[in-house]
Amino acid sequence: MLRRARVPGRVMRPGAAALLALGLVLAGAAPARAEEGLDRVRFLLATDQPPSPATLARAVEDPVAALSSVALDAAERMLLRRRAIIALGHLDDRRIEPMLADLASTAPEGELRRAAAVAMSRLLGASAPERLVRRLASMLRHQDPADREVAVSLLARVHTAEAAEALADHRAVVDALRRALQREAR
Fold it and tell me: Most buried of 53, 57, 142, 185 (most Cβ within 10 A)?
């Protein structure tokens, strides 16, 4: 609330110009605060442990928007983008699942596709809905063997009949098991 200020010899009233100036100052501070929030999120993502939802909530007003901004920014370092995607899987917000589903199927970078699939499986849990199983089953046919391996691993964690059916006789399962055995033999 603005009050009248006593100035020797006269009384000053807050005028429209003063309110406009205050609005301009505050509006100019909003983008700066948003960038500071993104810097805090980048700092949290660069640490060894992923930030908890509570830590993210204290760092920025909207953790989902901040993490999405980092994850979708092609100019960001790949490590921060991947960690932002994984951190999204720890949050509970209905805006996250469509974005993760889109990233899991369309991201040009395999590392981001795999991170989105892992985050989506964490977000939806072991009793994953059919839409997640369909996405992961489609990853079984992806040209990148690492994507297929992640899909096998994630489908194996889902305890539904659809997941078991997707894994039943798929070549990607055999390939993933073969590579795992070869790694252990070395």
Answer: 142
Which tokens go with 132? 């997640």
For residue 28 the two structure tokens come to 């100019």
- Print the domain residue range for 153: 127-186
Q: Degrees (nearest 5) of the Cα angle 146, 125, 55?
A: 90
**Mind listing the pLDDT tens digit for each residue in 109-165?**
888 888 888 888 777 665 557 777 777 788 887 888 888 888 888 887 777 788 788
The neighbour count for residue 41, using CB atoms within 10 Å, is 25
Rounded to whole angstroms, the maximal C-alpha distance in the chain is: 92
Return the SS3 of 10.
strand
CA distance 95 to 100: 9
Pair (66, 119) in one structural domain: yes
Residues 76 and 145 grouped into a single domain: no
Summary count for the chain: helices (H), strands (E): 10, 2
Q: How far apart are CA 41 and CA 55, in angstroms?
A: 10
